[in-house]
Design brief:
Length: 200
Protein backbone atom coordinates (compact mmCIF):
# COMPACT_ATOMS: atom_id res chain seq x y z
CA UNK A 1 0.00 0.00 0.00
CA UNK A 2 1.15 3.54 -0.67
CA UNK A 3 1.26 4.52 3.00
CA UNK A 4 3.54 1.62 3.86
CA UNK A 5 5.74 2.39 0.84
CA UNK A 6 6.10 5.97 2.07
CA UNK A 7 7.21 4.73 5.50
CA UNK A 8 9.43 1.84 4.47
CA UNK A 9 10.55 3.05 1.02
CA UNK A 10 11.95 0.07 -0.89
CA UNK A 11 13.76 -1.76 1.88
CA UNK A 12 15.84 -4.66 0.64
CA UNK A 13 14.12 -7.42 2.63
CA UNK A 14 15.68 -10.80 1.96
CA UNK A 15 14.23 -14.30 2.26
CA UNK A 16 16.38 -14.78 5.38
CA UNK A 17 14.83 -11.67 6.93
CA UNK A 18 11.36 -13.14 6.37
CA UNK A 19 12.36 -16.53 7.78
CA UNK A 20 13.81 -14.85 10.88
CA UNK A 21 10.65 -12.76 11.19
CA UNK A 22 8.49 -15.90 11.09
CA UNK A 23 10.62 -17.45 13.83
CA UNK A 24 9.98 -14.37 15.98
CA UNK A 25 6.24 -14.93 15.92
CA UNK A 26 5.05 -17.43 18.53
CA UNK A 27 2.79 -20.32 17.61
CA UNK A 28 1.24 -21.60 14.42
CA UNK A 29 -0.79 -19.26 12.26
CA UNK A 30 -2.67 -19.18 8.97
CA UNK A 31 -1.59 -16.35 6.72
CA UNK A 32 -4.09 -13.53 6.94
CA UNK A 33 -3.70 -9.87 6.10
CA UNK A 34 -2.87 -9.16 9.73
CA UNK A 35 -0.32 -12.01 9.80
CA UNK A 36 1.30 -10.78 6.60
CA UNK A 37 1.57 -7.27 8.04
CA UNK A 38 3.14 -8.62 11.22
CA UNK A 39 5.65 -10.72 9.25
CA UNK A 40 6.53 -7.66 7.21
CA UNK A 41 7.16 -5.60 10.35
CA UNK A 42 9.43 -8.26 11.82
CA UNK A 43 11.20 -8.75 8.47
CA UNK A 44 11.72 -5.01 8.17
CA UNK A 45 13.27 -4.91 11.63
CA UNK A 46 15.63 -7.78 10.74
CA UNK A 47 16.59 -6.07 7.48
CA UNK A 48 17.33 -2.82 9.32
CA UNK A 49 19.51 -4.64 11.85
CA UNK A 50 21.36 -6.48 9.09
CA UNK A 51 21.96 -3.34 7.05
CA UNK A 52 22.98 -1.29 10.08
CA UNK A 53 25.98 -3.56 10.54
CA UNK A 54 26.56 -4.93 7.03
CA UNK A 55 26.59 -1.57 5.27
CA UNK A 56 29.78 0.44 5.59
CA UNK A 57 30.56 4.09 4.93
CA UNK A 58 32.26 3.16 1.67
CA UNK A 59 28.99 1.62 0.43
CA UNK A 60 26.88 4.76 0.70
CA UNK A 61 29.29 7.70 0.70
CA UNK A 62 29.45 10.30 -2.04
CA UNK A 63 32.90 9.84 -3.55
CA UNK A 64 33.16 13.00 -5.64
CA UNK A 65 33.61 15.34 -2.69
CA UNK A 66 33.76 19.10 -2.95
CA UNK A 67 36.24 20.53 -0.44
CA UNK A 68 38.18 23.70 0.28
CA UNK A 69 41.52 24.53 1.90
CA UNK A 70 42.07 26.51 5.08
CA UNK A 71 43.40 29.33 2.91
CA UNK A 72 40.38 29.45 0.59
CA UNK A 73 38.74 32.91 0.78
CA UNK A 74 35.21 32.82 2.16
CA UNK A 75 33.85 34.49 -0.97
CA UNK A 76 35.06 31.41 -2.90
CA UNK A 77 33.65 29.02 -0.31
CA UNK A 78 30.25 30.72 -0.52
CA UNK A 79 30.36 30.60 -4.32
CA UNK A 80 31.16 26.87 -4.22
CA UNK A 81 28.28 26.12 -1.85
CA UNK A 82 25.90 28.13 -4.01
CA UNK A 83 27.10 26.59 -7.28
CA UNK A 84 26.88 23.00 -6.02
CA UNK A 85 23.70 23.54 -3.95
CA UNK A 86 25.24 21.97 -0.84
CA UNK A 87 25.29 23.36 2.69
CA UNK A 88 28.80 22.42 3.80
CA UNK A 89 32.19 21.02 2.79
CA UNK A 90 35.29 19.55 4.46
CA UNK A 91 38.33 21.78 4.91
CA UNK A 92 41.80 20.36 4.22
CA UNK A 93 45.07 21.49 5.72
CA UNK A 94 48.50 21.80 4.12
CA UNK A 95 49.14 18.06 4.46
CA UNK A 96 45.85 17.12 2.80
CA UNK A 97 44.24 15.92 6.02
CA UNK A 98 40.75 17.07 6.99
CA UNK A 99 41.09 19.75 9.66
CA UNK A 100 37.55 21.05 9.82
CA UNK A 101 34.19 21.47 8.13
CA UNK A 102 32.61 24.71 6.98
CA UNK A 103 28.88 25.08 6.53
CA UNK A 104 26.12 27.64 6.20
CA UNK A 105 25.82 27.64 9.98
CA UNK A 106 29.44 28.79 10.32
CA UNK A 107 28.72 31.74 8.02
CA UNK A 108 25.58 32.65 10.00
CA UNK A 109 27.42 32.33 13.31
CA UNK A 110 30.25 34.66 12.26
CA UNK A 111 28.18 37.36 10.57
CA UNK A 112 27.33 38.92 13.91
CA UNK A 113 23.53 38.79 13.97
CA UNK A 114 22.04 38.03 17.40
CA UNK A 115 19.81 35.31 15.96
CA UNK A 116 22.21 33.46 13.67
CA UNK A 117 20.23 30.28 13.11
CA UNK A 118 19.45 30.79 9.44
CA UNK A 119 20.01 33.03 6.45
CA UNK A 120 16.79 34.98 6.76
CA UNK A 121 17.55 35.95 10.36
CA UNK A 122 20.86 37.43 9.18
CA UNK A 123 19.18 39.23 6.27
CA UNK A 124 16.47 40.51 8.62
CA UNK A 125 19.10 41.91 11.00
CA UNK A 126 20.89 43.57 8.08
CA UNK A 127 17.69 45.19 6.81
CA UNK A 128 16.89 46.48 10.31
CA UNK A 129 20.29 48.13 10.40
CA UNK A 130 21.63 45.90 13.14
CA UNK A 131 25.33 45.20 13.42
CA UNK A 132 26.02 42.47 10.89
CA UNK A 133 29.78 41.90 10.64
CA UNK A 134 30.98 42.63 7.11
CA UNK A 135 34.62 41.85 8.04
CA UNK A 136 33.83 38.26 7.14
CA UNK A 137 34.31 39.27 3.50
CA UNK A 138 38.10 39.28 3.94
CA UNK A 139 38.33 36.06 5.95
CA UNK A 140 39.28 32.54 4.92
CA UNK A 141 37.76 29.09 5.49
CA UNK A 142 40.19 28.38 8.34
CA UNK A 143 38.96 31.47 10.20
CA UNK A 144 35.38 30.32 10.70
CA UNK A 145 35.32 26.54 10.11
CA UNK A 146 34.09 24.15 12.79
CA UNK A 147 37.00 22.20 14.24
CA UNK A 148 38.31 19.69 14.97
CA UNK A 149 36.68 17.79 12.15
CA UNK A 150 34.38 14.95 13.13
CA UNK A 151 35.20 12.08 10.75
CA UNK A 152 34.64 8.37 10.25
CA UNK A 153 36.66 5.70 8.47
CA UNK A 154 35.58 3.77 5.39
CA UNK A 155 34.75 0.66 7.45
CA UNK A 156 32.36 2.45 9.82
CA UNK A 157 29.00 0.59 9.88
CA UNK A 158 25.72 2.35 9.31
CA UNK A 159 24.92 2.12 13.03
CA UNK A 160 28.06 4.14 13.82
CA UNK A 161 27.40 6.70 11.10
CA UNK A 162 23.88 7.46 12.28
CA UNK A 163 25.06 7.66 15.90
CA UNK A 164 27.84 10.13 15.00
CA UNK A 165 25.43 12.34 13.05
CA UNK A 166 22.82 12.26 15.80
CA UNK A 167 25.11 12.75 18.81
CA UNK A 168 26.99 15.63 17.19
CA UNK A 169 23.91 17.20 15.61
CA UNK A 170 25.58 17.41 12.22
CA UNK A 171 24.29 16.78 8.71
CA UNK A 172 27.45 15.39 7.13
CA UNK A 173 30.59 13.51 8.11
CA UNK A 174 33.79 13.19 6.01
CA UNK A 175 35.05 9.65 5.33
CA UNK A 176 38.77 8.94 5.62
CA UNK A 177 40.92 6.05 4.41
CA UNK A 178 43.54 4.31 6.55
CA UNK A 179 46.00 7.11 5.74
CA UNK A 180 43.45 9.67 7.00
CA UNK A 181 42.95 11.09 3.52
CA UNK A 182 39.51 12.22 2.40
CA UNK A 183 37.80 9.60 0.21
CA UNK A 184 34.16 10.59 0.52
CA UNK A 185 31.42 12.12 2.61
CA UNK A 186 28.21 10.73 4.09
CA UNK A 187 25.26 13.06 4.55
CA UNK A 188 21.82 12.47 6.01
CA UNK A 189 20.58 12.72 2.43
CA UNK A 190 22.88 9.88 1.34
CA UNK A 191 21.40 7.63 4.03
CA UNK A 192 17.81 8.47 3.08
CA UNK A 193 18.52 7.94 -0.63
CA UNK A 194 20.20 4.60 0.05
CA UNK A 195 17.38 3.20 2.12
CA UNK A 196 14.72 4.46 -0.31
CA UNK A 197 16.61 3.11 -3.33
CA UNK A 198 18.74 0.19 -2.06
CA UNK A 199 21.48 -1.10 -4.33
CA UNK A 200 22.18 -4.44 -2.66
Amino acid sequence: MKGERDIYCEMDITEDDIIEAMRDIDGYFDITTADAREIFRYAYRHAMTRLNYALRARDIMTKDVAFVKESTPLVEVAALLARTAISGVPVSGDTGQVVGVISEKDFFKHMGAKDNTNLMSVISAFLRGENVDTAIVSQKAGDIMSKPAITIDEDAPMATITRVLHENRINRVPVLDKHEHLTGIVTRGDIIRYFCHPRV
